[in-house]
Amino acid sequence: MTDQLDESVRSLLDISNRSNTRSLETGTAQQARVDYNAGFPALQGAKEAVASVEDRQISGPDGSITVRIYRGFGAPSKDGPGLLYFHGGGWVIGNLDSHDEICRWFANLGKCTVICPDYRLAPEHKFPAGLMDCAAALGFMAKSATDFGIDLRRIAVAGDSAGGNLAAVLAVMSRSGAAPRLAAQLLIYPNTDATQTADSYRRYATGFGLTATTMKWFRDYYVRTAADIVDWRVSPLRAESVAGAAPAFIATAGYDILVDEGTAYAERLRQEGVRVVLRHWPGQIHGFVSMGRYVPQARQAVQEAVAAWRSFEEAPD
């Protein structure tokens, strides 16, 4: 099965297997964050310079939220595009620094302003706390659009893994007026069905980075009760309707337990009239876009997401 794995990814997996690193689910959420924070810097490349970057506090539903604001080189001072990016990490780990590389790429490649919120994490803050913070960040971005040189009609959401889940949910909320309107949703190996019944959970259960056991651990920390698992705000694939959602770019990886639900979400959107660009990286694993030091396709994925975003603007639905 591994003969089609990208060579750079194969090498990383071999190193991980030899290191005997403990699985995240064998410890507490706090221990998982310590382990993750110790490991992610080795996977990121050198920080790509941007025109500016700053951290700011904004008002959230239950206190202040830290957001990091990036301005890419070439971003217009007026009527420019804006991107709200949600970091991945299973709703339990991840932070502003863990996805700093991706946000810098988006800012420069998109010549845009990127805002990334440090939303609340589970299990200390279970669903829907993190989602509410993300919605508040979108409201802030829309309200402050003029200050950032952003055209309200050019705001998109994006995210990877659990962040892709949050972006997808906000895109469904947006179509009904429950959140500001969006120009695009850019989803990188998104989690769209928390029931975890897709066949890719069996095919790639172990040996390819994110395991089925770890993903269940993440989900069970995130939800309050079993009923939340089928709530569309946790599992957007199960929404009654996604018609009218923003055009979508969806990236999937071949050796990823989430590949089937990402593909299924793309098909669901298409069936209900939403424009979709689905891009599949057959030799990659979950999280490859966060491995810029070793995986050239990482920045390429962001480049293709930006190209799809622009294509939606050029030929709107």
What does the model show?
The protein has helices at residues 7-19, 29-39, 100-109, 129-143, 162-175, 200-203, 212-222, 226-229, 259-271, 297-314; strands spanning 52-60, 63-71, 80-86, 113-117, 150-160, 184-188, 248-255, 276-285. It is an alpha/beta fold and 317 residues long. The protein has a single domain, classed as Rossmann fold, CATH 3.40.50.1820. The protein has an eight-stranded mixed sheet, sandwiched between helices. A hairpin with a 2-residue loop joins strand 1 (52-60) and strand 2 (63-71). Helix 3 packs across helix 10 (297-314) and helix 4 crosses helix 5. The longest helix has 18 residues, at 297-314. The mean pLDDT is 95. Keywords: Hydrolase. InterPro entries: AB_hydrolase_3 (IPR013094), AB_hydrolase_fold (IPR029058), GDXG_lipolytic_enzyme (IPR050300), Lipase_GDXG_HIS_AS (IPR002168), Lipase_GDXG_put_SER_AS (IPR033140). The active site is at residue 161. This is Alpha/beta hydrolase. GO terms for molecular function: hydrolase activity.
